[in-house]
Structure formats: structure tokens, C-alpha cells
Amino acid sequence: MLSRDRRDRALPTFVTLLVIGLLLMTFDVRLEGGGVVGSLRSGTQTLLAPVQKAAATVVNPVGDLIDSLSNVASLREENQILEAELAAAIAALVAVQDDLARLDVLEQLYSLDIGEASIGRTEANVIGRPDAFDQGFIIDKGTRDGVLPGQPVIDVNGYVVGRVKDASPATATVVPINVSRAGIAVLVGAQIGSLTPQPLTSDMRLDIREAREPILGGDRVVTSSASAAYPAGLAIGEVIEDAAPQNGSLTAEVRPFVEPGALRVVVVLAWPPDPIATVTDEPEVSTSTAPGSSTTGAGDASSTTGGEGQ
User: Fold this and answer.
1) Is this prediction's pTM over 0.90?
2) Are 133 and 271 in contact (CB under 8 A)?
3) Any bridge partners for residue 163, and if so which?
4) What is the pLDDT of residues 105-143, one digit of tens each?
5) Going by C-beta distance under 8 Å and a sequence separation of 6 or more, which residues neighbour residue 55?
6) Domains of the chain
7) Distance CA 232, CA 212 (A)
8) In contact, 231 and 114? CB cutoff 8 Å
9) What tens digit of pLDDT does each residue of 174-188 get?
10) CA-CA distance, 274 to 32, in Å (whole number)?
11) Contact assessment for residue 244 and residue 117, using Cβ atoms and an 8 Å cutoff
12) Cβ atoms of residues 298 and 208 within 8 Å
């Protein structure tokens, strides 16, 4: 009897507690302004917030690093593209500068005045430069272009370079004046002298046998009309230091205007007008004469020009 009363009271109590719990939950949900799902989401968010912060602390720097590496790779590719464009621009600039240099050379050649309008001129490119073993250089013009042994060679400024030594149909070899064994009849002011190369130096030696007055450093040395190897009036170089006559003769050092190793374009002159005379071997001026001695006669045109064999 007692157990039946307990069961009868337990069921209403359970139902009452269940109803009260539902009412409380309903009241709490309405008080928060959301549904049951919202409440569950809010609770879950609260539980997961620390985990999300920890994950953000670890993941965000990794993401930033990946983004940075991607940017670095992109910048590297852009840099390579820019370097290629810069190299192409530099190559184009060099080509333009070379064309401008070529144009300048052609303009100089066009306006070149060598004193004799009737003298033929052949422009040639230097294709083989002098070295320690061979001081001569090769040009890209030969006999089929009218280039013959013995013809004088000048640069684009009209300065004396040397003479053609050998010529083939397509090329020729030029020997500069400062390495040739031959002398040149020259003028310094109104005085006639002989200019000869010197061993182991690019400077040349000027000898004036019948010197009437001193010469000064910077005085211009030009080819003389007594020369059979060069037209008159071509500039060769300048006197290095002042020099005064001693016992009627004068000796000085002359620095040529032309540096053969730096030449790119030269001009071959059709001189003398008689091509047969250019291939005739003539006596050479010895370069081993003692200081103060005469290598050629200043007053003897034949002895002066006779030293211009090559």
C-alpha cells in the first residue's frame, strides 16, 4: 500500500519538474533574444574561441610567409624581365652609338682636305690590329680596290698613319711610320728635316742638318714637298720639347698624332700618281745613327726623299 502511494506521487513530481524546466529554458531563450540553435552556436563559439585564437597565432604568420614568398617569386620574375629589356635596350644603344661613330667617320672623310683634290682615296676598315710581334695592321681593301704597296695611309683626321707594305686582292698590310725603318722628309715651320722611328718607343726622332733657329715644344711637324712618299702638308705629330741648334744641326723628339692600335678606319691615298714608282725599292734611312749626326741632307731633296722606301 505504501509503495503504490510513492509511485503515484513520483510521476506527478517528475512531470512537474519537466514542465518547470521547459518553462525556465523558454524564459532564458526569450530573454537572450535567440532560439535554441543560436544558444547552442553561442556556447560552441565560446568554447572554440581560445582554439581559434591559438590557430590564428600559428596559421596567420605561415600564411603571411607564403604570401611573401609568392611576392618574392613574382618580383624576381619581373626583375628578370626588366633585366632582359635593359640588356636589349643597351644593345640597341650600343648599335646606335656605333652607327653614329660610323656616320661621324664618314662625315670626316667626306670633308677631308688633303691638299690635292685629284688624289684618289680608298676608305678601309682595320680588321687586324698590331700586336707585340707584328706592329703592322691589316685593312679590308686590296689591289682590286686600287690599294697598292707603297701608298700612304692617313686617318680620318688627315694625320699620317704609315704606308702600305703588302697588298693582296682583298686585303693589305699597313706599316705605321713609328715602326717602319724608313725616314720621312718633313717641315717644322720653314725648316726641312728628316723624321725617323726609334726602337722601343712610339716617339720619333727629328734631325735638321742645317738648322737656322730653335724649335719649340708643340711645333707641328708636317710632310715636306721634298717627299716622294707622301703628299706635302700632311700632319705627322708635334715636337715634345724645345730644342736649339748645336754646331749647325738640331735633334728633337716628335710624338706622332696617331695611335695605330686605336684605329678603326683609315684612308689609303693613291700617291704618287705613278703606281710603278710605289713598288720601287728605295734606300732606307738607318735608325742607328749617333745623336747629332745627319741621316738625310736637308738641302738635298734627293737624299731626303731617298729614305722613304717603305
Assistant:
1) no
2) no
3) 152, 175
4) 555 555 555 555 568 889 999 998 776 667 789 999 999
5) none
6) 112-310 (2.40.10.340)
7) 21
8) yes
9) 999 988 877 899 999
10) 122
11) no
12) yes
